[in-house]
Amino acid sequence: MGQIKTNAIVLSRADYRENDRMLTLFSPTLGRVDALARRAKSQKSPLLAASELFCSGEYVLYATRDRATVESCHITDTFFPLRESYERFSHGIYLLELCRHVVQPGEENERLFLFLLRSLAHLAYGTSEPKSVTAIFIMGLLSLTGYRPRVTRCISCGEPIGTVPGGYAISTAEAGILCANCKRAEPSIEERDAEAMQRIMRLGLKTLDEGLEISDSAFHALLAMARERLDGTFQSEKALI
Ligand SMILES: [Zn+2]
Prior knowledge:
Order of helices and strands: EEEEEHHHEEEHH
Number of strands: 8
Number of helices: 5
CATH superfamily of the largest domain: Recombination protein O, C-terminal domain
Largest sheet: 5 strands, mixed, barrel
Strand order of the largest sheet: 1-2-3-5-4
Bound molecules: zinc ion
Structural class: alpha+beta
Shape: elongated
Radius of gyration: 20 Å
CATH architecture of the largest domain: Up-down Bundle
Helix content: 25-40%
CATH topology of the largest domain: de novo design (two linked rop proteins)
Distance between the termini: 43 Å
Strand content: 15-25%
């Protein structure tokens, strides 16, 4: 209660009354925080930029028992180049929406916070395909939330992936890879996708340093995996397909 200083990023915002905005912030120590930014819509407001999507920085909040308001913000990054590419912007919005779904009020999650900022930096300033960054983010997010994808052995028979010929499939419900002998109607993926997923689980965002290509079928399977494992529907997913 009282004044709180915290790093945070704007996950979503909604217009509120005539000139205010209601922000949903993600703080590494406080989790999800809904905070009112008074007069943020006015062009002269010092909170105008601080209440935009993707804005991250040190926020000073004033919290009472039933609400928080933004007093000021020292901005560290706005990820501005995301606004110059519809594709990159759409992927960024999807990452924010996943976090809004996962992050709970009062729950600290420093690792996810840093992972989100680094992923957005790749989307905004990097040269990797947005699809590759999002694929890594989904797999990392699932790991951080307790649904670590299983990619080294077939989740049904346990044979090491890479030893059974005939292609693979992704079980979106169980977040893992199935070999040719065990797959049924699950989405098929190519062998290079299975390898890519193994590299992602080992290296995280560093996978991008060596270049990463994900087929459309594997990417769609990962989107489905996020929906099923996180038990959510994500509006922003439509713009990625
Ligand atoms: Zn198998």
